[in-house]
Specification:
Elements lengths: L3 E3 L1 H17 L3 H18 L12 E5 L4 E7 L4 E8 L16
Parallel strand pairs: 1-4
Antiparallel strand pairs: 2-3, 3-4
Helix pairs in contact: 1-2
Length: 101
């Protein structure tokens, strides 16, 4: 399987989401993290199953939480550009570049 490279900003988005969920219900952040990890494993198994988005990106939904993982399937890796909340600014992450990880 290809390695997963997670953009720095995507890591920050994940951490911010975890912090928010933990403020709502202690421990909920661990459920959120587990669902994000499951979503990443699903996209890793067959990235082509994930629906295309814009600008060459694909998307994978995170179950139980209103987040999507936006990524590019490259020849030698899968690059995660964003762990984005579905109700926030759409496509704010599309200007991120692969070499800015």
């Amino acid at each position: 399987m290809k390695p997963i490279i997670i953009q720095t900003e995507a890591k920050v988005e994940l951490a911010e989401g975890m912090a928010w969920y933990d403020e709502q219900v202690p421990g909920l952040s661990l459920d959120f993290l587990a669902e994000v990890e499951r979503a990443i494993q699903r996209l890793r198994q067959n990235p082509q199953w994930c629906p295309p988005h814009k600008f060459g990106f694909r998307k994978q939904c995170v179950r139980r939480f209103p987040y999507r993982i936006y990524f590019m399937d490259q020849a030698d890796m899968i690059w995660v550009a964003a762990v984005a909340h579905t109700s926030r600014k759409p496509d704010y992450w599309t200007t991120r570049k692969l070499n800015e990880t």
